[in-house]
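Title: Comparing notes on inverse folding

I've been comparing how different people in this forum approach sequence design from structure. To keep things fair, I'm posting one structure and asking everyone to reply with a full sequence. Here's the target:
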C-alpha cells in the first residue's frame, strides 16, 4: 500500500521525537510539493523541516488531478488539497492527515486516513514506540493541540488493543 502524507503528521511526529516511525511503519512516503514547501521552506527552523529535508525515503510527487485540487482549494489549504488529490490517484493509498475537515473529505472520496496519534498507536503496538503517553505529551508541549477526549481514546485503545 502506498502512503501519502500531509504536513501535520510530519510536523507532529517530529515534535514527538518519532519522525523515523514513518519510515519504519510505511517504508517510502509520498508528499506533494505544497507539503514540502509548507514544512521545509515556510517552516525553516521549525519542527519537521530538517527531518523532512534529510529524508531520502520521502518522495515528492506532483498530483495529476488539478481539477480536484482546484475544487478542494475552495475550503482546504493547498497542502491538504494536493495530498488528497495525490492519494485519490490510486486505490491502494493510505493518507496520513490530521485536520478534521481534510479527513472528512478524504473519507468521502473513499481514501483511508490515519492521523499522527493513529501512527503513534500503530508504532506502540508494533514495539517501535515504548512510551505512547510521553510521545503525546511531547507533541503537546511543543505546540500540537490535541483534544483530551481523543488522547484518552487513544490511550484506552493502546491498553485494550482496540481502535480509538
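Reply #1:
Here's my take.
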Amino acid at each position: 500500500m502506498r502512503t501519502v502524507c500531509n504536513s501535520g503528521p510530519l510536523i507532529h511526529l517530529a515534535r514527538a521525537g518519532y519522525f523515523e516511525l514513518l519510515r519504519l511503519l510505511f517504508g517510502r512516503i509520498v508528499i506533494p510539493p505544497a507539503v514540502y514547501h509548507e514544512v521545509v521552506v515556510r517552516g525553516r527552523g521549525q519542527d519537521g523541516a530538517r527531518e523532512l529535508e534529510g529524508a531520502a525515503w520521502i518522495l515528492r510527487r506532483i498530483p495529476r488531478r488539478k481539477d480536484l485540487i482546484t475544487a478542494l482549494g475552495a475550503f482546504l489549504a493547498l497542502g491538504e488539497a494536493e495530498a488528497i488529490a495525490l492519494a485519490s490517484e490510486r486505490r491502494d493509498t493510505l493518507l496520513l492527515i490530521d485536520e478534521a475537515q481534510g479527513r472528512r473529505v478524504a473519507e468521502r472520496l473513499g481514501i483511508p486516513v490515519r492521523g499522527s496519534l493513529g501512527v503513534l498507536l500503530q508504532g506502540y503496538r508494533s514495539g517501535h514506540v515504548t512510551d505512547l503517553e510521553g510521545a503525546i505529551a511531547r507533541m503537546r508541549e511543543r505546540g500540537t493541540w490535541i483534544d483530551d477526549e481523543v488522547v484518552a481514546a487513544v490511550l484506552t485503545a493502546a491498553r485494550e488493543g482496540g481502535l480509538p
